[in-house]
Amino acid sequence: MSENTPVFNLEEELKKLPARPGVYLMHNELGEVIYVGKAVKLSNRVRQYFRSPRGKSPKILRMVEHIAWFEYILTDSEMEALVLECNLIKEYRPRYNTMLTDDKGYPFIRVTVNEPYPRVLFSRLSGRDGSRYFGPYTSAFAVKETLELLRKMFRIRTCSRVLPRDEGKERPCLYYHMGQCPAPCQGLADQAEYRENIERVVRFLSGDFKGILEELEQKMNRASEAMDFEEAIRLRDLLTSVRHVAEKQKITDMGDPSDRDLVAMAREGGEAVVSVFFLRAGKMTGRDHFHMKADPEETDAEILSAFVRQFYTGTPFIPRTVCLQEALPDSGVIEDCLSAKKGSRVALFVPKRGLKERLMELAYQNAENILKRDKDKIKREEARTLGAVQELSALLGIPGIRRMEAFDISNISGFESVGSMVVFTDGRPKKNDYRKFRIKTVSGPDDYASMEEVLTRRFERALSDDEAKRQGFSVLPDLLMMDGGKGQVHIAEAVLRKLGLDVPVCGMVKDDRHNTRGLYYRDEELPIDRHSEGFKLITRIQDEAHRFAITYHRGLHTKNSVRSVLSSIPGVGPKREKALMRRFENMDALKQATVEEIAGIDGFTAPAAAQVYAFLHRDGENAAPEAGDAPVSD
After folding, report:
1. What pTM was computed for the model?
2. Domain count for the chain
């Protein structure tokens, strides 16, 4: 299990699930999001995955086998969960959500007002073609139901005939005989009356829907009183569809398509949780939460101020607006600081009413829920992170350790050697600071020489006068952790001496079974309690450096293998090759794709997609070679 995987007791976490709408994210052992789903009641929906396998599809069964832990985000309604689910699927592209990642976005309603007899259509795209577009809406089903309602109530034509050119060429359709179309195709419709109905449709879609809702409700009540229950049920369902389309969404605010974050905090004594909602282009794309250790005497505003300063000075992206739960005592200074870093004006804003205020309340509810749920976990997490760092600090006699860096080399018999640099701060991985290196000056499987090159490049960049080269390397570690004993430590110390740097270097020594047994520091092997949190942290750092190097190396190897396979497919040139590689992460994923999925990629026609599919599924000697993972030595 990766160090990113939280200490997770499945049964206990299932008991804590709230009976509220929301979105859940399933993670594998590497911390990757493998599935995103929505639920009316999180407690019911998430538990279903871990009950009897009866009735579950093979795909879901495979997915459940890979779930290491889950998390969830609360929403106020199922509709909000639907929008958030769509945004998160686009953000993470989870492996088991392939049926939903069509990138079609939300649907629109198109009114072809530029035609003599306009139509009201379902559309996945909006454009400047003279039509009126309404949306986007959150539910395609609700839109289709509403279109059906509008056509029936206002007798709008559904055909694609070009009028008046095609007038009288064919017999009227069935909708005319059902009384749902005035048959403009036969010249039987009054154009002024038809236009008036279209204007009523436009008013409704513009938000003036009170009249039609009242009309539907009256008709439903009359049908019920007349004991025409079938008609009453039909009208009730249509009424529900209209309400769904008309419902205002807090998660998607098309009226303000700007980038902004919402920051809210819940606290109890010295424990605080800050919840951040990320809205990009007016849509919520995700959220994160942060545990903070606070002085019980500090005010909420002081804690929020500390968080904003620490978080936004270390994040690569700063939105135009940061919405806060309450005003900060030093907001002017913080605004100036963030504006200087972003290069444009950044505003701190406290919403008092409307959509942003309701979203802020939702962020607070998420923070409060996490704080209540994670009391015990916070203490365990503190022991395994800060507590573990303090143990190592005492063992090595190095006070004030915060940032630790570890390096590893990966290759296949010297082929395409790569190096990895992972960073842990206060016992937690800081993935933004991870770096990859392709070995340039070493031929063959020489790990010592490769490590010397990687360390030299890393620390020379830290000392460079070139701001671009220094980017991401300027902060020096408090402790350098080498994956090995005396040899690797001496290599690192030689590089640091050559560059005039004073950084403590510690080796993570392994036994004959390749398990960590202790630390090598200042030419002495220090024993360490294998059951201590410090030892567990060393193991996590070592595993992460190893994983990161292997993942990078496998990616290069697989990419080259995939490219060699694709280049041999008739009709696949460089552009189509790149398009396939962008869409599918490996050959297995490509081979599982249908012809329709391949045809949906930019640059592919249906015949070209069929040709790719046929090539990949040939049997015998002519079958496409596999591009699986080769064994990797480290």
Report:
1. 0.41
2. 5
